[in-house]
Amino acid sequence: MTQVPTRHPLLAARDLAAPLAWRHGVPISGHDFLADVAEQAPLMLAQGPVVNLCGDRYAFSVALYAAMLRGQASLLPPDARPDTLARLCDPAGQVFAVTDEPTLPTPGLPKVLVTPRDHADTPPQAVPMVDGHLHAASLLTSGSTGLPQPHAKTWQTLVGDVAAAAGPLARRLGRASMAGITLVATVPVQHSYGLESTVLLALLGGAAFDSGRPFYPADIVAALESVPQPRALVTTPFHLKTLLLSGLALPPVELILSATAPLSPQLAAQAEQATGGVLIEIYGSTETGQLAHRRPSESEVWENFGDIRVHAEPGADGADRFVFSGDFMPEPMAMADVLELLDDRRFKLLGRSNDLIHVAGRRSSLAHLNYHLNSIPGVDDGAFWLPDDVTDGVVRPIAFVVAPTLAAADVIAALRLRLEAVFVPRRVVQVASLPREGTGKLTARRLREFALAQFAADDTPVQVTHVVPVDHPAFDGHFPGQPLLPGALLLSEVLAAAHGAPAIAARLGAMPTLAAVKFLAPVRPGAELAIALSPEAGAARGVRFEVRCGDVVCASGRWTPAGGAP
Questions:
Q1: Could you write out the three-class secondary structure of 11-53?
Q2: Which terminus of the chain is more solvent-facing, meaning fewer CB atoms within 10 Å of its CB: N or C?
Q3: What is the CATH number of the domain that holds 426?
Q4: Range of the structural domain that residue 388 is part of
């Protein structure tokens, strides 16, 4: 007997005449959304899969659902850099890109535009059903090492993932469902957390979502104010801390969701006090989906979603590994974390198994050290790094901090009260910022590159990588249809790279002189810039620079110390 595939609707049961999304403060109903999906589907190319590069959350959702109606999977890369897209090109020409940005380059990939239209008096639309076994999406994560890995999701896995989380989140607010709540998010939708907790929590969980992705604190406040209450803010510890440090008055927010890194109880309590809402942390991974939740201002204990269970079993190295199973999960999956199990539904998170470090015979985790570093009042951002070199047989951790009001000695004194003596860093390096991704994540590879650049010897060339944000506000005026980064901003990135390398910053001083510059090629949105800084020998003590985008030199020139020789 042939098994009949399980089918699931594209939208959860809801009032289709009510807002499903908001774009620039204008509501879009469920009927309008279904009409946009129906109109977009025939515009997709016959082949597939689809690389969904839409930055607008609503356009992304239209493209995702249009692809599913055609039986096509969507590939969700961590960024739209040329080298990332090059890895997705298919010699047979089957893969194509969809985007809401006409000028976005998609080298090697045919491009289809997503242009949702205004609908007036849209007639009622039937909600399509989709085979639950359909390969709906593959998330291409950057991973902790920075190397992308694909993680395929079927439609029924995504449906079950959201169903398991939506009920408990609603009950945390004393509500029967997520209906009526509008989600505003700072996280990219191509990330698993951004996908699950924004568009899918709305489309499959009954909420509504704002289409934008505000980044700066003032933009986040404006986005929240542009949608009706009750509101939810979907964010990360890094973005949340930046928002609270801005000093801006925040509108009421009933729910704050946070993920991607542990959140301190102090920051959680501060966020709840500032917004009047409830802050919930989400635990999970791209491989497993969202697994558990907690309210850190009340408890450090995580509780699993739905009927998910967790148990310990011996790993290949003899240490316990912690395996989750149940509900929407296709098969049991182990997490790369060290847990303390209270029972098969509740646990404490002790750290990641792949970031455990040993110093002078003692063991800890980088996540634990970073947690305490970022709990220090006055530390805006911080990260521990374990260098490759060994002194007297012991590896000494180093802390990088963004703490304009603190001296290094202040940070060390505070850490002595929080950590075992062997983990207190011998060196605290003050920096302007850390090289975090859009999700707030700081990969091991990027941190190592950053650290090595900071410690480059006085006469050793330094190279720094910088990705130009696709949504950088400077592109709005330079120039419509052909956006390029202004030369002044390119120079500011060079100067930031110079100030980020201690030896070069000491050579040039706080106010260096631009002795020469040539702009040789335009810099477009999403470009990955390689900024090379070469200290000069001799009395001038200048620094030559060259900025490359791939094999193309975009700019070159020379900085000298203030008052130095030209």
A1: CCCCCCCCEEEEECCEEEEHHHHHHHHHHHHHHCCCCCCEEEC
A2: N
A3: 3.30.300.30
A4: 360-430
CB-based contacts of 465, cutoff 8 Å, min separation 6: 449, 528, 529, 530, 531
Q: Would you say 436 and 188 are in contact if contact means Cβ atoms under 8 Å apart?
A: no
Distance CA 143, CA 188 (A): 15
Same domain, residue pair 33 and 59: yes
Cβ atoms 447, 386 nearer than 8 A: no
> Would you state the pLDDT for residue 230?
96
Q: What is the pLDDT of residue 566?
A: 47
Closest CA to 51 of 128, 150, 142: 150
Backbone angles phi, psi at 290, to 5 degrees: -80, 130
Provide the 8-state DSSP code for 380.
S
At a CB cut-off of 8 Å and minimum separation 6, what does 542 contact? 515, 535, 536, 558, 559, 560, 561, 564, 565
Question: Dihedral angle at the C-alpha atoms of 81, 86, 92, 94, nearest 10 degrees?
Answer: -20
User: CB within 8 A of 331, min separation 6: which ones?
Assistant: 325
Same domain, yes or no: 542 and 495: yes
Q: In sequence order, which residues have a C-beta less than 8 Å from that of residue 230 and are 6 or more positions away?
A: 173, 180, 181, 182, 254, 255
Query: How confident is the chain (566 residues) per 10-residue block, as mean pLDDT?
Result: 69 93 93 94 90 95 96 90 82 86 90 83 85 93 57 94 95 94 95 94 96 93 96 92 90 94 83 95 92 93 95 85 90 89 93 70 78 88 76 68 91 90 85 82 82 65 85 78 88 86 71 90 91 77 89 92 57
Nearest to 140 by CA among 131, 150, 127, 129: 150
Q: Which amino acid is at 95?
A: V
